[in-house]
Amino acid sequence: MPDKLSASSERPSSEEELDEICRAAYNLARKGNSAEALELCNWLIADDATQTAGYRQRAAIKEYMADIDGAILDLQAVVAVCLDEPADFYSLGILLLKSGATVEAINAFGTAIEIGIEANHHYYTNGAFLFRAEAH
User: Fold this and answer.
1) Which runs of E-coded beta strand occur in the chain?
2) Residue 80 and residue 124: Cα distance in Å, rounded?
3) Which residues have C-beta within 8 Å of that of residue 34, sequence separation ≥ 6?
4) Residue 10 carries which DSSP code?
5) How many separate helices (H) and strands (E) can be counted in the chain?
6) Residue 61 DSSP symbol
7) Do 11 and 47 touch, CB atoms closer than 8 A?
8) Of 88, 53, 86, 83, the residue nearest 72 (C-alpha)
9) What's the rounded Cα separation, in Å, for the pair 27 and 33?
10) What is the pLDDT of residue 2?
11) 6 φ, ψ to 5°?
12) CA 86/CA 76 separation, integer angstroms
């Protein structure tokens, strides 16, 4: 992980390195270094290869910071380009429920269910069914 971030800082070269940077960003937020955590996420977002991971992690950090609206915006950026990951729609649905956007939450859970059924991946499908029913 780079000590001082800049556009020319060395980018992660593997999923493991990317995961390490994402964990480091969340740990910074947990230790009260929110500005540094967000800066690390913004650095990831600035590069096309790590942009989606950066948005996902920034959403998680914003949720931790109780910036639900900011977390929603970041996950909306993720689902706009990553249409096949039920976890993104599931997480977006939970955030939308927290913000009181029930109709939008139901839609996000519905998308998570559809993707999960198509992929035969039931982890998020079952939870999305539960939350969608609760939102009705």
Assistant:
1) none
2) 19
3) 28, 61, 65
4) P
5) 7, 0
6) H
7) yes
8) 88
9) 9
10) 53
11) -155, 170
12) 13
If we measure between CA atoms, which residue out of 58, 35, 43, 49 comes closest to residue 6? 43
* Mean predicted lDDT score pLDDT of the chain: 90
Cα 98 to the chain's mean position, in Å? Answer: 15
Distance CA 88, CA 91 (A): 5
Rounded to the nearest angstrom, the gap between the alpha carbon of residue 128 and the centroid of all alpha carbons in its chain is 16
Structure tokens at 121: 């991946």
Question: Are 53 and 43 spatial neighbours (Cβ–Cβ below 8 Å)?
Answer: no
Q: Render pLDDT for 66-101 as a digit per residue (tens, 0 to 9).
A: 999 999 999 999 999 999 999 999 999 999 999 999
Distance, in Å, from the CA atom of 85 to the CA atom of 78, rounded to the nearest integer, reads 10
Q: Of 111 and 120, which is predicted with more confidence?
A: 111
∠ Cα 74 4 20 (to 5°): 55
